[in-house]
Amino acid sequence: MVKKSYTIKGFDCANCAAKSEAHLNKDPRIEKANIDFARDRLDIVYVDEVMSIEDIKNKIKEVEEDELTIVNIGEEVSDYKIFDKHFWILLSRIAFVVVVIILSFTAFRDDSYFWVNFALYLLATVVIAYDIFYRVIKTIIHKENPLDEYLLIVIATVGAFIIASIEKETHVFLEAIMVATLFQIGQVIEGIATNKSKEAIMKAVDLRVEYANLIKNEGVEKVKPEDLKVDDEVLVTTGEYIPIDGVVMKGRAFVDTSSLTGEFVPVAVGVEQEVYSGCLIKEGTLTVKASKEYSNSTVSKIMDLIGESQENKSKADKFVSKFARWYTPSIFIISILVGIIGGAITNDWIAWILLALKMLVVACPCAIVISIPLAYFSGIGLAGKNGIVIKGSNYLDELVGLKKLFTDKTGTLTHGSFSVVKKVAIGISEEQLMEYLCAVESHSIHPIGRAICLNYLDGHEHIQIDEFIEKAGLGVQGEYQSHKLLAGNKRLLEDSQIVVPDVKEDGTIVYLAVDGKYSGYVVVSDEIKEDAYEMVKLLNKNNIDVTLLTGDKEENAKIFCQKLGISSYQSELLPEDKILYINKEIGGKGKVAFLGDGINDAASIKRADVGFAMGGVGSDIAVDSADIVLMTDKPSKVYDAYKIAKITRNVAIFNIAFALFIKLGVEVAAFVTNLVGVPEVIPMWLAVLADTGLTVLLVVNSLLILHRKINR
Ligand code: ADP
Ligand code: MG
After folding, report:
1. 141: Cβ–Cβ under 8 A, 6 or more apart, which residues?
2. What is the mean pLDDT of residues 51-76?
3. What per-residue confidence (pLDDT) applies to 710?
4. Which residue has a Cα nearest atom 9 of ligand 1?
5. In sequence order, which ranges of 242-314 are alpha helices (DSSP H)?
6. Mean pLDDT of 39-53
7. Which-ligand-closest: CA of 551?
């Protein structure tokens, strides 16, 4: 099995995309195809051999008329063109219709010209609607569900045309042709609104860097970032984006990370510091040595996540697909019933069949089908602009119901930059205490470990040891110069039957045991992030309970929570214990989230309904394990994500409710006006206009999410 992803552009409507997806899935060469209309993305899992893009296009062409652009994912696609060939052709077709209408109202106005009008309108109908007819026929031939807006329009147009011919009523011809013409115009306007909206969202989150200045012996050459290799050196100067993750070899600069983090704080960087792709150089020039390939760089990863197709569709998305499945057929049946029953009772068949056709036209579900997925995509775009990467629309849904946030402490609510504030050596010298500690801690990935070694080792190198083991939530062990070393909390030492005295210190105590003998401790202290106060305050205000799950000892947890205003805590937990607490809460009324830094709490992040990981820039573990990645180290971004989820949900619900309200309103109005004998108040073309206008309105409403401010 081979999976391949493509960018696919040009669908007029979410429905067309759904139909093409269904058709692709029937192909024996394809295991599973998935089209994501909002993200312009097609994913195919092939049974064995990969199909050529031409083959895919031809396959879709069997059921779809839209002019599609398909390219491999990552390749450039030109922007949506409004004034393309099709636009001009359609315009000429519309012009032809207009000429026919004018002729029928001037030269052929008299009733005696009925058959001339018949011929003219028939020709005009073919000219304006041939592609709609063709689509419907294709769909039926290939046995895909034909009940879509195109069929509705065909029935309405043909129906009106037949009635006009029987009744010899020229103005009913006008109705028929107006339906098809306005529908076509509507499709173009919808296409512009939808495609331009999608582009706007993609652009808002687009971090791709266009070029890199590769340093070569003979000078500097502009290349694509994709072509860079590890250890290549690039030159980046004021106003340019860093093309690739790497290390600064030369120069100093102020770097603006706002495109990644949503925060406008320039950071000073210099030699030996790491820098990330997608950041803008505010001032200065850097020589950066690539430490990763472009495809593994920060920008590339984030773009992949945002563009990643949504296998986990949002509830609203699912509702819409289900809704479209029963809504269109039901309206279909209701309309036919109205036509037949009304006709039979009043014996005024023509009037009632016309009403039935009108009701069919209003029924197009496009406004909802297009605008809902777009609303979610827009929400994800807004999050991206704020340095929050959300991996799926479904997480926005889950967040709306958020009732409980479990949070890690070290590195999440604290800076995780410990400093050693006290050293107590027992039976060995202080110098030895530090040497032993650093021997094992220099291999630790935990911030405590790094802090202890920071001054002692002057930076980076490791001390050679054997049999190193990192015990998550406890500490570290290893063998150094044939001494068995243990460094960590009380529990770690006690697990090895080492008696440890109770030490009262303000901070985290790291005990050391050498060859099974307690040999002293150091006290490290960490600072609470200013922003953590903000997070607790905001979440409490919104009735979201915050509970601390920490591996730290009880006294520390208690004081910590008092300071922050966190209502409850669980202390002295191993990473696997944290999962137990999350499990207990999951499946209840509210949704449960976990916030961590990705260091030894990846399992908890995965287990929660919504897993937040902090510090997305530069941390692969965080990016991979989380549902939502916070690019900065600010815990209060959890609240922003929650707020964005609410905004998105509200817009989605508004769109659905408003569309149903308008549609039902027009249906009822059409019915009532027909009943009281003034059907001309709601002509058929008005029904088409109501549908198209509504779609454009709701698409724009969805797009506006992208420009919303998050109020705190
Ligand atoms: P938190 O849940 O607050 O993030 P952790 O689970 O990361 O805490 O760690 C829990 C406790 O385990 C720490 O408070 C510390 O006592 C101990 N510990 C973990 N890793 C180390 C280490 N490398 N060195 C010393 N102590 C450690
Ligand atoms: Mg931690």
Report:
1. none
2. 88
3. 92
4. 473
5. 258-261, 298-307
6. 91
7. 1
Residue with token string 């173009």: 188
Q: Which ligand is nearest to the CA of 409?
A: 1
The H helix count followed by the E strand count for the chain is 22, 25
pLDDT in tens, 524-582: 888 899 999 999 999 999 999 999 999 888 888 999 999 999 999 999 888 888 999 99
Residue 570 and residue 581 in contact, taking contact as beta carbons nearer than 8 Å: yes
**Nearest in space to 494 (alpha carbons), one of 473, 477, 476, 516:** 516
pLDDT on residue 618: 62
Show Cβ contacts of residue 412 under 8 Å, excluding neighbours closer than 6 positions.
595, 596, 597, 614, 635
CB–CB of 485/512 below 8 Å? yes
Output the six-digit token pair for 445: 């990935």
| Pocket perturbation via mutation, ligand 1, pick of 406, 492, 506, 550 by most ligand atoms within 8 A of CB | 550
Residues 6+ apart with CB under 8 A from 418: 447, 448, 450, 451, 452, 508, 524, 525, 526
Candidate from 441, 489, 506, 566 with most ligand 1 atoms within 8 A of CB, to mutate: 489
SS3 per-residue string spanning 507-564: CEEEEEEECCEEEEEEEEECCECHHHHHHHHHHHHCCCEEEEECCCCHHHHHHHHHHH
- For residue range 633-645, what is the model confidence (pLDDT) as tens digits? 899 999 999 999 9
| C-beta of residue 50 within 8 angstroms of C-beta of residue 29 | no
Distance (Å, rounded) from C-alpha 28 to C-alpha 46? 9
**Of these residues, 256, 397, 408, 691, which one is catalytic?**
408
Task: Please give the full DSSP string across 557-599, using - where no structure is assigned.
Answer: HHHHHHHHT--EEE-S--HHHHHHHHHHHTTSSSEEEEEE-SS
CA of 35 to the centre of ligand 1 (A): 45
Q: Ligand 2 center to residue 85 CA distance, Å?
A: 58
Percent above pLDDT 70 for the chain: 97
HEC secondary structure over 107-139 = CCCCHHHHHHHHHHHHHHHHHHHHHHHHHHHHH
Hey, whose CA ends up nearest to atom 24 of ligand 1?
475
Q: Which of 407, 445, 446 to mutate to test the pocket of ligand 1 (most atoms within 8 A of CB)?
A: 446
Report CA-CA distances (Å) from 379 to 397, 505, 664, 680. 11, 46, 28, 42
482 Cβ contact list (under 8 Å, min separation 6): none
Burial bucket for residue 221 (CB in 10 Å: 0-12, 13-18, 19+)? exposed
Active site residue 408: yes
Cα dihedral 465, 470, 475, 476 in deg (nearest 10): -10
Q: Where are the beta strands (DSSP E) in 158-308?
A: 212-216, 219-223, 233-237, 246-250, 253-256, 266-269, 274-275, 280-290
Residue 513 near residue 478 (C-beta atoms within 8 A) = no
228-to-278, 281, 440, 480 alpha-carbon distances in Å? 15, 19, 37, 41
Cα 574 to ligand 1 centre (Å): 9
Beta carbons of 242 and 275 less than 8 angstroms apart: yes
pLDDT tops 60 at residue 309: no
What are the pLDDT digits (tens) for 64-92?
A: 877 889 999 878 788 888 888 888 999 99
